[in-house]
Prior knowledge:
- Helix 7 packs across helix 10, helix 8 packs across helix 11 (327-344) and helix 11 (327-344) runs antiparallel to helix 13 (398-408).
- The longest helix has 53 residues, at 121-173.
- Helix 14 links the parallel strand 15 (452-456) and strand 16 (476-480).
- The protein has 4 domains: 1-208, Response regulator (Rossmann fold), CATH 3.40.50.2300; 213-276; 279-429, 2-Layer Sandwich (Heat Shock Protein 90), CATH 3.30.565; 452-564, Response regulator (Rossmann fold).
- It has 565 residues and is α/β, with parallel strands linked by helices.
- 52% of the residues lie in helices and 18% in strands.
- The strands form 5 sheets. The chain has a 5-stranded parallel β-sheet, sandwiched between helices. Strands 9-11-12-14-13 form a 5-stranded mixed β-sheet.
Amino acid sequence: xxxxxxxxxxxxxxxxxxxxxxxxxxxxxxxxxxxxxxxxxxxxxxxxxxxxxxxxxxxxxxxxxxxxxxxxxxxxxxxxxxxxxxxxxxxxxxxxxxxxxxxxxxxxxxxxxxxxxxxxxxxxxxxxxxxxxxxxxxxxxxxxxxxxxxxxxxxxxxxxxxxxxxxxxxxxxxxxxxxxxxxxxxxxxxxxxxxxxxxxxxxxxxxxxxxxxxxxxxxxxxxxxxxxxxxxxxxxxxxxxxxxxxxxxxxxxxxxxxxxxxxxxxxxxxxxxxxxxxxxxxxxxxxxxxxxxxxxxxxxxxxxxxxxxxxxxxxxxxxxxxxxxxxxxxxxxxxxxxxxxxxxxxxxxxxxxxxxxxxxxxxxxxxxxxxxxxxxxxxxxxxxxxxxxxxxxxxxxxxxxxxxxxxxxxxxxxxxxxxxxxxxxxxxxxxxxxxxxxxxxxxxxxxxxxxxxxxxxxxxxxxxxxxxxxxxxxxxxxxxxxxxxxxxxxxxxxxxxxxxxxxxxxxxxxxxxxxxxxxxxxxxxxxxxxxxxxxxxxxxxxxxxxxxxxxxxxxxxxxxxxxxx
Length: 565
């Protein structure tokens, strides 16, 4: 069945648009008609019943579905379509911006959820292409699992039959030593095969579990994006702030830290699948607290004031020893506790953060005068089994808190009464047993000379960042929007280095690297990719690639790679 889905660049794709708004349907049809690569053939349906009828007629390869139709509304609309065409990819395109509805239809099998008024041609086409590929992967995975189940049943039957024959031989003839040895050998081989299959199934189940983490992941990224949006908006709206280097630099530092937290969040999602531990280093507790307060400032200051609330945060930090840990995870932990305290204050309140040394631990105490919690909620906060899914306002984020504390060997204590506030104590060991020495950071790599560099990436802002970085060292940079254009420029001129994205239209980074080495084997090729950490962990390096840089990257990382190649 997976063969029914073909690559989007073979021939035209038949898309069924189920939309009762004629004007919006025509706009979607116009956007799809403007695509030259891939090409689309469009059919329209204005009601759910008409959509089901056309799906049952066949020939449709992709569905763009509005959830609000004259004869159906909400998740029920999607259920009708998935029942009529369970193997087709469906992308929701609706004016319904309710996150609960979005999560519900995604859990029921939708490939994507786009909101009207926030979709451009590029986003729509990319969503359609990704939806087709994801649906093809789901079907292939389901077929593989069905085939695996069949093989297990067949193999189990064969083993039972072999054992039955062996038992009969032993009972009836009292001679079967050679047959018994051979059967035992086959049994061991079968068990080894079954263990390998079981490990593969476990890995796939862990990947599927990411779908159930969608709400938590979205919550974490929204927290990361809040200071980025807030501080950049302030700088854009109030140009006079740029005239104050101290204020501007402070805002930019907070934005940079939030971006680092976002990159760390991506690494933690990958770590859930690959079970890789974080990087531990010696950390200043005072800086962790100050950073968390600054990171949450748009929430407890700007947003609170806009909502008619007044929230103050005070710190009382004594002399405490350093701790060993992952800075991003501890920052997330403290930020989640602060967010819960902020949510508990409705009109006016105070949050106090203190740190003190207790034996061989450092205790971080967060106290608020908010609404507090009853005993049932307080016990559930302390029990990590109840904290994976938010059950009320005070339980949000405690899955992250428990996960970070477990990683650092820490403890969580909560004292709270309804109407009298909450006191959270986070205890972290100041010294880890068998702690490995923290490696010193390598100094920035000084460029040897100015180079002529060709950059290929289909994202304009990434090209701009790379050009900005390389210009710091006076390199001469030329850019291309895809692999095909980059190869044409490479054939027409001489370059010292080629920097290329991996996922690009027309000619991807792997293919570009092979073409570059074919014509000029001595020109180094550096691959820039969001899958860089995964590729490094698996030891994957495509042919023709001399170095891999994982996105996001810094100027020092780029300098180091250029120096090595």
